[in-house]
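Quick illustration, no need to memorize.
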Amino acid sequence: MIDWEPLVAAAWEVCERAHAPYSRFAVGAALLMEDGSIVTGCNVENRSYGLSLCAERNAVTAAVGRGLKRPQAVVVVTSSSPPSAPCGMCRETLRELVEDVPILLVNPEGERLERTLAKLLPDSFVFPPPA
């Protein structure tokens, strides 16, 4: 059973630091890692929009930088109703590390949607193993 509350709190805390001057759509993400630690990330936009980074990918990058590569759970917080799911790039980035993981989507009104990576990214591409 996942204790979602510490992850939700961590995601909201980092969401407050998001840099989203163009979309005004702040996102916070928190990953529960294999060692029990929580790693967070927020979105960072850029005037050259293709250079913007999503919260989920920032969290994954921070985790990998710490030597952690197996998220056990993910929380994504946004102000949208219903709460927004990770974009396709973030789904693929998570899939690079794990086949499936529970993902909780949350907004300030208290709406919560629990999904899985497998549900959000069905029939995902798997690179063939080397011969």
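Residues 4-15 form the longest helix (12 residues).
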